[in-house]
From TrEMBL:
Pfam families: Zn_clus (PF00172). It comes from Scleroderma citrinum Foug A. Signal peptide: none annotated. It comes from the Eukaryota. Gene3D superfamilies: Zn(2)-C6 fungal-type DNA-binding domain (4.10.240.10). Residues 9-39 form the Zn(2)-C6 fungal-type domain. This is Zn(2)-C6 fungal-type domain-containing protein.
Length: 51
């Protein structure tokens, strides 16, 4: 099975290095903790291929 990658992690998950499920408007980690969930696009970064 090929693991699915989330295209972008929210700021909270990125800062805490947590696995973000990428659900919008609020991911499960932020929803569970009651934090605001913010997605900020990262420019100039190409996704690495899964191999």
């Amino acid at each position: 099975r090929v693991p699915r990658r989330t295209p972008m992690a929210c700021q909270f998950c990125r800062g805490r290095k947590l696995k973000c499920d990428g659900c919008k408007p609020s991911c499960s980690n932020c929803n569970r903790r009651g934090y605001p969930c913010n997605y900020v696009p990262v420019y100039g970064c190409q996704p690495s291929p899964l191999s």
